[in-house]
Design goal:
alpha/beta; Rossmann fold; 4-stranded mixed beta sheet
């Protein structure tokens, strides 16, 4: 009978590595002492991905038994070799070494039984081929699984407590920051690269791919892990609010440590810290970037290519179908001598120009020179009369931000208390048998939904002052930009900071609706006639 042994340690710490070495020494001596016929196969698998041959022993280093056995390469190799008939018996210290998950453990043992391969657990002298031992093996596996669950819950609790203190617990810390005693601190050198990424995307019109190529080929900088930049990493950085000083944690949690199931946490349960000391990108620039991301996403959907080549690139919108307008050279009459008059450029609905009236009925064209002139006049008008924007800002604050915050919070807390009372009443009705479990669950789900809505409103009110401050800050930044703009030397990047979009109505009135970029929850439209 050919035999092998299986060893495992859950971490690659020095103590655990010593434990693995002790396990290997134990089986080497056991094989010699019992004069067992050791199979000429085995593997040592390290968490780093390194594999090496290990005579008669399969060992996984730095991998938990609670994880799916598919992640344990040595374990997986052992099962494959068992099916090939390389050995007939596997020695394991105890059930916990073999598995901490009843579903995986049970299925593997049944699979090995088909091939007459025995798993022998030294603690308790239990054999997987002995029917009378099956109950004990399952019992020990369930106990191990429950121990893992309790341990996992304790770990999750510890992580949440650290997150509440403002510590970073999200694995590798983001590019642009260092991790000092659990807290993030700005890395000055990397923060400059972060600014370059945002500047290229927002002001130069660069895409993910061109930014990644610039970092890899021109600047020759690497990621936190020393690897080449990818488009996915660029996109993730541009969307990360951490760069404007908003640290969000507890967005996901491990629902079952034994299966490794990760679930999303409702947004109102996230742990959020507003840290001015972590701000690398101004709030205004970050918000403008989010708008640009949303705009390009829509353009991609509409098969319109992002551009900053011309003054009005990606700013003009068809009011009929909502798709951007495209720039075209105006056709002029050709004289007999072959010359023609330069009529400049016109803009047409992209959908109509490409596919005709079947996709959009707006087949009108607008002359570029006229649009530019109208937009310039509107910017001049705003520069000279800022009172109009002031009035709009005050209207938004009055409409969206209730001044009676304390009263609103009191009402919400009373509502929360009523919901909690209804939950207790619902539970009492179930206990007394007045309602069945199905009715209880239905009512409880509805109460939980109301509770979440209540908490969301509460959190929003608590942040009200910050939202008002941010709105006023954005307004101040906008006015500063407006004051500094030279209307005779406008470029596309500057215009995009001032204007979100221009809806062009080609009618007798030559009206142009311009939505100016004030970073508000709702865009404020102004009309040019």
């Amino acid at each position: 009978m050919k035999v092998v042994a299986y060893c495992r340690v859950s971490t690659n710490s020095e103590d655990q590595l010593n434990s693995l070495e002790n396990q290997k020494n134990h089986y080497t001596k056991l094989f010699e002492k019992e004069n067992l016929d050791v199979a000429d196969c085995g593997m040592l698998y390290k968490k780093s991905g390194e594999k090496s041959f290990l005579y008669g022993i399969y060992a996984d280093e730095g991998l938990s038994g609670a994880k799916d056995y598919e992640k344990r390469e040595a374990f997986k190799k052992m099962i494959e070799d068992a099916k090939k008939g390389y050995f007939n018996k596997i020695y394991v210290k105890n059930v916990q070494r073999f598995t901490r998950y009843i579903k995986d453990g049970s299925s593997v043992l049944k699979e090995l039984k088909k091939y007459d391969v025995e798993v022998f657990f030294e603690d308790g002298s239990l054999s997987s081929l002995n029917p009378s031992h099956e109950l004990f093996i399952n019992m020990f596996t369930i106990t191990a699984q429950e121990e893992s669950r309790i341990k996992g819950a304790a770990v999750q609790f510890g992580i949440r407590e650290s997150q509440k203190k403002g510590k970073w617990t999200g694995g590798v810390h983001p590019f642009g920051y260092d991790l000092v005693k659990g807290y993030l601190h700005i890395n000055n050198e990397e923060s400059e690269i972060v600014k370059v990424i945002y500047d290229m995307y927002l002001n130069k019109g660069s895409g993910y791919q061109s930014i990644a190529r610039y970092l890899n080929d021109d600047l020759k900088v690497t990621t936190k892990l020393g690897k080449q930049w990818s488009t996915k990493q660029i996109g993730s950085m541009l969307k990360n609010p951490l760069y404007k000083g908003v640290q969000r944690t507890h967005m996901t949690y491990v629902d079952d440590i034994n299966s490794g199931t990760v679930k999303k946490v409702p947004e109102d349960k996230w742990i959020v810290h507003y840290k001015e000391e972590l701000k690398i990108i101004d709030s205004e620039v970050w918000e403008l970037t989010q708008r640009e991301l949303a705009k390009r996403k829509k353009m991609h959907k509409d098969k319109v290519r992002p551009s900053n080549k011309h003054l009005l690139s990606n700013l003009l919108v068809c009011p009929k179908c909502g798709v951007g307008l495209r720039r075209k050279k105006r056709k002029a009459y050709v004289r007999k001598d072959g010359t023609s008059r330069d009529l400049g450029y016109e803009w047409r609905c992209t959908m109509n120009d490409r596919y005709g009236k079947s996709r959009c009925e707006n087949n009108n064209m607008v002359i570029e020179k006229e649009i530019i002139e109208n937009v310039k006049n509107k910017v001049i008008e705003l520069k000279e009369n800022k009172q109009k924007i002031d009035e709009k800002i005050m209207d938004v604050i009055k409409a969206k931000f209730n001044p009676n915050v304390d009263e609103e919070i009191k009402k919400i807390l009373v509502e929360k208390e009523d919901i909690n009372k209804q939950e207790m009443t619902n539970l009492n009705l179930l206990t007394k048998g007045i309602i069945d479990e199905k009715q209880f669950q239905k009512q409880n789900d509805e109460l939980q939904k109301q509770l979440k809505e209540n908490e969301y409103k509460h959190n929003k009110l608590l942040r009200l002052d910050e939202e008002v401050k941010e709105l006023k800050f954005n307004y101040k930044q906008y006015i500063n930009l407006l004051d500094s703009v030279d209307v005779n030397n406008l470029d596309n990047a500057t215009l995009k900071k001032l204007i979100i979009s221009v809806y062009v109505f080609a009618s007798n009135k030559k009206a142009i609706e311009t939505k100016f970029n004030l970073n508000l929850a709702d865009e404020i439209p102004f009309y040019i006639i």
